[in-house]
């Protein structure tokens, strides 16, 4: 038998081959350059552009508050003069004004006068102004008892509705005291003048609220939240049901919604034009990750009210220091707090429901977050839990159902390797669908290990660098993740190219997102924590992208017919061309003998193209193997074998270089939709949370927190933010990773070698001074990070150089994680012209005839201090039944909460100077030893530090520019005196 030689020069082997770049350009023209195809240039450009388009506005929103309208437009629309409000802030922050300072009295007098002026200007004769000089409160927190005399200012704006005492009134709170080392511009000056602005707004006839509103300016928040506790015992507090607390824990920027009591009240915040915040911050308070507190816990816990905690929160290095001043805040920050407060309070005051009556309205934990600082979403945690469980169970069902239909229709190519053939031709065709399964998870693991490893390296070498260079840390870690991921996937793609690389990346990404969502659901159910809400949207996006990737396979022919499909789409119907499958063309083999009856039906492997041989399995470049045994040939893609483009053969239908031949049948545009599903929403929500967490923890090292924890959290969010890039990274060109390699190298060297502090980001250290009022011996204490503290003292402070200063540093600091250096510094002069032994007096004696039938005995202690209105009593053993008497008889002491019978520490605060306190305590009668202890009287006024606190003045004067001082405790100077009775 003699076979007719083929008339065409092109064989089926040539038709199987994937075109190279040069062949594409030569034979297929410009159609191969379509920007919609999954090619390196469009993939690199689009994914990088999306990330930049998201990061830039996120960073702007995160750091820069919105600008206010013109003052004239505010006057016309709201009747508010923002410039006047700003000038009020200047009056409040002229001096340090803690509760225990004379400047505090001046601020109080100014605020009372300012409120009366506002009310008079608006012609409101119904609003009440109450200057509280009556409430004295005795309460206990932990093992400490506190006696406090209120100096609060209360303003009641009467509502027009019929809700008085029935539906409940609204409370807006801010505190007007500062700490002893800060003017208090944002803690809490901006909040105070915001309250003044709100009083101005709601006392105008056109803006009278439906509910009555109480505006509380409390005094004593910085010392155990005393002012808010005192308000709880005021008669006017009983009708309040909704509250907005205004605070400051930073020195500028945007005001964020710290926390809320429930989803229902959080909806009022949705009215703000520029909402900002995440429920993750509230969860951090709830789980104890944030140790500081605000008045919020008094209104929520003690009064059972429902409300919001709105606060400034960055940067923390100026918090409680002299730089918490108007120089480091702005009218933009003031406007942001005022606008969000006004929107929230307006909604609260207009609400006519009975939702917030105690015991009536239902209360559900809220999950909330902003979108680009303009939109605000609020959910109930039970709804997010239900949604999480539905996604965890139903979504995998749809994915497996899709896989089932793909398998039934023989189109599930992912695990297909050698489908059968219905033709008499070779029965097997290698599809290599499983190729690329492991490479995404290997890339994830190695990239994550690299990011964590570098983070720990920085934490080991230069742990405090995050304090001033958190942006550099983000850039360094993100650059490293992209470099490592790209390198691994690109090498794998070069060595073993596969069309399944993108879908396997999506599969692993969706699996990780499912695990994160499972952790989120567990936290929602077991811990009542909804701050991981971003994992819900993360998994939704990855699941949809995975379903879309699976749907792509429906466009392919069944795997059992893939040979026929390739044959019919790649080969003309010409018989001569078909015969080239079983007999070579004379044109192809000009040097060989003419075929005879003894010639093999299959062509010799040596003539099937360069590098081909009989029986070879698919090589690393995505070869297609035909044949059931080792005697069958393997056909590879080779640019020399690229067929010419004829009419009816479209460039868009061809596979990428060296990838499986069947991939030319996949849709070429679905990657665009997958990109839009995977990147924008997950990155927006995750990056917002990452920025909030990163900024919150970056400067907590000065407070004693471990820098390692901060770096681990940065690594975690770096990985989460960049994971959506995984399915596309193998298509990136080398230009971006090469550029990022330079960025990574430069930032890593900077982070390892740079000094971590600067004038703009100073290291915070904590000051206190103790003096023995009996002997006059004094000790100056400075607390801070061990690595820098001793050098700050011994190298910069002249008093530490003097003979006998005896600088001693150890880890006995009252602040965990910090060290303390103590030395005999410059003595204080807090009571000018009076020797220290007369600064305070204490007298303790048994009260005669006070023994009752139970055998208890009573000890009366009289305490007084000059130029101070704060002292402490520390007993050597626990006492019970503490009572404190106001010698003037003006105030009535009210016990607040439950008082236990075992305390050894009593704090005393008076609204009057040098008046003193009379304290009665009881102890068991079978104790025969005298009751002993000591008093510690406090002086906190640093406005005349050069004369009265020379040690503090010296530290401020001689500390380097990269350090700043804050207060360690309630008093800057603590005078100690022993007693016994």
UniProtKB/TrEMBL annotation:
Where in the cell does this protein reside?
A: Vacuole membrane
Q: What is its main location?
A: membrane
Pfam families per the UniProt record, alphabetical: Peptidase_M28 (PF04389), PFF1_C (PF22250), PFF1_TM (PF22251)
Matching Gene3D superfamilies, A to Z?
Zn peptidases (3.40.630.10)
TM stretches of this protein: 43-64, 385-406, 437-459, 471-491, 503-524, 536-556, 671-694, 706-726, 738-759
Q: What are its GO biological-process terms?
A: proteolysis
* Keyword Zinc-finger on entry: no
**What ranges does the record list as Basic residues composition bias?**
610-619
| Residue ranges annotated for the Peptidase M28 domain, each copy included | 152-343
Vacuolar membrane protease transmembrane domain segment(s)? 442-736
Q: Name one GO cellular component term.
A: vacuolar membrane
Q: Could you tell me the EC number(s) of this protein?
A: 3.4.-.-
User: Which cofactor does this sequence's record say it needs?
Assistant: Zn(2+)
What top-level class of enzyme does the UniProt entry assign?
A: hydrolase
Q: How does it sit in the membrane?
A: Multi-pass membrane protein
* Protein's UniProt keywords contain ATP-binding: no
Q: Which GO terms describe its molecular function?
A: metal ion binding; metalloexopeptidase activity
Report domain Vacuolar membrane protease C-terminal positions: 763-973
Q: Where is this region: Disordered?
A: 582-628
Provide this UniProt record's keywords sorted from A to Z: Glycoprotein, Hydrolase, Membrane, Metal-binding, Metalloprotease, Protease, Transmembrane, Transmembrane helix, Vacuole, Zinc
Similarity remark: Belongs to the peptidase M28 family.
- Quote the function comment for this protein: May be involved in vacuolar sorting and osmoregulation.
Protein name per Swiss-Prot or TrEMBL: Peptide hydrolase
Q: Which organism is it from?
A: Orbilia brochopaga
């Amino acid at each position: 038998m003699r076979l007719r030689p083929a008339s065409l020069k092109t064989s089926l082997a040539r038709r199987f081959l994937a075109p190279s770049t040069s062949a594409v350009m030569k034979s297929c023209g410009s159609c191969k350059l379509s920007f919609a195809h999954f090619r390196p240039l469009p993939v690199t450009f689009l994914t990088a552009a999306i990330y930049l388009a998201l990061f830039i506005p996120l960073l702007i929103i995160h750091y820069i508050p919105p600008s206010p309208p013109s003052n004239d437009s505010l006057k016309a629309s709201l009747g508010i003069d923002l410039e006047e409000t700003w000038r009020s802030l200047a009056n409040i922050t002229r001096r340090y004004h803690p509760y225990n300072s004379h400047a505090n009295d001046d601020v109080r007098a100014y605020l009372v006068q300012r409120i009366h002026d506002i009310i008079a200007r608006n012609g409101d004769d119904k609003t009440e102004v109450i200057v509280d000089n009556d409430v004295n409160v005795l309460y206990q927190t932990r093992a400490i008892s506190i006696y406090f005399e209120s100096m609060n200012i209360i303003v009641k704006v009467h509502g027009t509705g019929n809700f008085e005492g029935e539906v409940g009134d609204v409370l807006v709170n801010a505190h007007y005291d500062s700490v002893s080392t800060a003017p208090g511009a944002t803690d809490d000056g901006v909040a105070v003048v915001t309250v003044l602005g709100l009083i101005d707004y709601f006392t105008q006839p056109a803006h009278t609220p439906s509910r009555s509103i109480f505006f509380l300016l409390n005094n004593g928040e910085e010392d155990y939240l005393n002012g808010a506790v005192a308000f709880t015992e005021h008669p006017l507090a009983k009708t309040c049901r909704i509250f907005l607390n205004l605070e400051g824990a930073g020195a500028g920027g945007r005001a964020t919604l710290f926390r809320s009591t429930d989803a229902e009240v959080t909806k009022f915040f949705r009215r703000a034009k520029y909402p900002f915040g995440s429920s993750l911050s509230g969860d951090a308070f709830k789980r104890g990750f944030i140790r500081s507190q605000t008045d919020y816990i008094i209104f929520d816990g003690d009064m059972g009210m429902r409300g919001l905690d709105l606060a400034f929160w960055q940067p923390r290095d100026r918090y409680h220091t002299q730089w918490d001043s108007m120089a480091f805040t702005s009218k933009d920050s003031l406007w942001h707090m005022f606008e969000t407060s006004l929107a929230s309070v307006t909604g609260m005051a207009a609400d006519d429901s009975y939702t917030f009556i105690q015991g009536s309205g239902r209360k559900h934990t809220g999950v909330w977050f902003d979108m680009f600082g303009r939109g605000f979403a609020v959910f109930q945690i039970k709804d997010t839990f239900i949604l999480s469980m539905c996604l965890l169970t139903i979504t995998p069902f749809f994915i497996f159902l899709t896989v089932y239909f793909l398998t039934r229709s023989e189109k599930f190519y992912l695990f297909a390797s050698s489908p059968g053939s219905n033709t008499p031709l070779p029965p097997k065709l290698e599809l290599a669908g499983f190729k690329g399964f492991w490479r995404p998870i290997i890339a994830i693991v190695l990239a994550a290990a690299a990011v964590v490893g570098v983070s720990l390296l920085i934490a080991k070498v230069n742990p405090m660098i995050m304090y001033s260079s958190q942006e550099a840390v983000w850039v360094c870690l993100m650059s490293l993740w992209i470099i490592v991921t790209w390198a691994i996937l690109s090498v794998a793609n070069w060595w073993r190219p596969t069309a399944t690389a993108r879908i396997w990346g999506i599969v692993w990404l969706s699996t990780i997102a499912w695990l994160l969502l499972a952790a989120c659901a567990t936290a929602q159910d077991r811990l009542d924590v909804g701050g991981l809400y971003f994992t819900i949207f993360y998994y939704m996006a990855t699941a949809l992208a995975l379903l879309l990737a699976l749907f792509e396979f429906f466009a392919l022919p069944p795997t059992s017919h893939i040979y026929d499909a390739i044959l019919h789409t790649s080969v003309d119907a010409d018989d001569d061309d078909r015969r080239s499958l079983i007999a070579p063309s004379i044109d192809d083999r000009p040097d060989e003998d003419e075929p005879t009856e003894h010639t093999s039906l299959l062509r010799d492997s040596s003539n099937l193209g360069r590098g081909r041989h009989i029986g070879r399995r698919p090589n690393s470049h995505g070869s297609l193997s035909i044949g059931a045994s080792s005697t069958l040939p393997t056909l590879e893609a080779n640019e020399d074998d690229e067929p010419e483009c004829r009419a009816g053969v479209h460039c868009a239908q061809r596979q990428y270089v060296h990838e499986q031949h069947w991939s030319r049948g996949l849709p070429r545009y679905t990657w665009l939709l997958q990109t839009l599903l995977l990147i924008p929403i997950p990155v927006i929500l995750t990056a917002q949370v990452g920025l909030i967490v990163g900024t919150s923890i970056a400067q907590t090292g000065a407070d004693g927190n471990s820098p390692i924890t901060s770096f681990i959290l940065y690594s975690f969010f770096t990985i989460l933010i960049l994971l959506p890039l995984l399915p596309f990274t193998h298509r990136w060109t080398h230009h971006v990773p090469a550029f990022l390699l330079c960025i990574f190298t430069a930032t890593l060297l900077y982070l390892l070698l740079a000094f971590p502090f600067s004038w703009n980001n100073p290291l915070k250290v904590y000051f206190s001074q103790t003096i023995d009022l009996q002997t006059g011996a004094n000790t100056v204490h400075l607390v801070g990070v061990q690595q820098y503290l001793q050098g700050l003292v011994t190298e910069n402070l002249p008093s530490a150089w003097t003979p006998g200063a005896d600088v001693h540093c150890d880890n006995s600091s009252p602040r965990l994680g910090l060290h303390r250096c103590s030395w005999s510094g410059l003595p204080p002069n807090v009571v000018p012209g009076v020797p220290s032994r007369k600064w305070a007096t204490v007298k303790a004696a048994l009260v005669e005839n006070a023994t009752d039938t139970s055998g208890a005995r009573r000890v009366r202690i009289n305490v007084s201090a000059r130029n101070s209105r704060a002292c402490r009593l520390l007993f050597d053993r626990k006492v019970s039944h503490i009572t404190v008497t106001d010698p003037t008889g003006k105030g009535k002491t009210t016990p607040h909460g439950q008082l236990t019978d075992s305390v050894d520490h009593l704090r005393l605060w008076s609204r009057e100077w040098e008046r003193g306190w009379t304290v009665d305590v009881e102890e068991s009668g079978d104790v025969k030893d005298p009751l002993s202890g000591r008093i510690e009287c406090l002086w906190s006024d640093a406005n005349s530090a050069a004369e009265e606190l020379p040690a503090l003045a010296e530290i401020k004067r001689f500390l380097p520019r990269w350090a700043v001082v804050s207060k360690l405790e309630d008093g800057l100077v603590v005078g100690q005196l022993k007693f016994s009775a």
